[in-house]
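Trying the structure run again after the queue cleared.
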Amino acid sequence: MPTVYKRCDCPDQNRPKKGGCRHSWSYNRTKSDGNRTRATLPDSVGLTEAQAQAALDGIGPGATPEPVKANLTFGQWAADWLGRRRATETTVEKYEISIRLHLHPRWGKQRLRTIEKRQVEAWVQELEANENLANSTALNHWKVFKSVIKDALQNGQITSNPTYEVEGPYVGASEWYVFTPDECWAIYDEFPHRYRLIPMLGFACGTRQAEAFGVCDDVIDTDRKLLTVRRQVLKVKETKYRPHLVERLKTSPRLSSKEAPMPSFLQDALEEHMERFPPLLTENIVWEHRKKVDDCRRTTARALFWTPYKNLMSGNYFNDYLWRPTMRKLGIKDENGGLPTFHDLRHTFISTCLQNNIPEHTVAAWVGDSVEELRRTYSHLLRNHVDTHGAVAARLTARPQPSSAVAAA
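Done. Tokens:
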């Protein structure tokens, strides 16, 4: 195996620093005619000896190192990176939108090798200062940018990562509305009978909106009083923007299903609903990881919720014709005067569980989140548990009281 070396007299050739050795590394290779010759390792300026040797070791025997494209732009490599993604179509579509509308105008024409850390830091400040850009959206752009840069580094297109130790845009704590029990039941009473079970699934089991739409009669276990959530109704590019019942959770493939306890009032409401509005048979797409929807296996299931046009319930119809009119009629608004969303019912369920001392790992299993995600989102509620459990913890480590016999002696 050939070894890299330098023929220069620079004092810092093995540990190049700023302003130090600017020469490339060399190695000896055998040509096809059997003669040995000295060759230069492309794009090795600024590499340490160990890095240069690792790059050389990755080259096959007899192969010539492929030179880095000096004029390769961020836009060109971002397009290459996007073409190799194996995520869901929805995720890839979000990546494409981020690159096309935000990253390409800023970085598209700049050569990858010329992107500097100071430029990246200035760009992050621009993201934070942009009042027309939500912090969470800026963070998503940052994540895509970092992924493209990291991929370029791993494929040898750049020799250093300009995003290294650069903190992304600041994202403040999430704000949401927590409904009172009176408000939850007022929503239930105000909703049309055919759909009033949907908000109840939100505040009684913590389901997401699409998961509530996808509840079928085969996931209701009345004996164990458990609701199994494993489907959702999707209306995205993957389903040609028509609502389809898909056997898949938002957190797939990490989690294929989750179980939540059914309160007695929910169980009674489910039985009443299915008697009054019998579930209808529909196609069920059994989603498989890294497969397109068209290639997935099909089965059937009996869904509980349908629009008046015999379509599966979708977010647009529910929010425009049911949820928002109900919020306005009841006069429920958040601190900024906006209307709470269905997702706030899920926050209400989680907050209520945590405030009543249900262990966080149990709540995480019910709602299909990781404990880390739960801690990050609801840290303020977990901090409040200090008042509840602090005295108990203090007693566990307090100095033991002397026994009566020892005290008498």
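The mean pLDDT is 84. Worth checking whether this holds up in the mutant runs.
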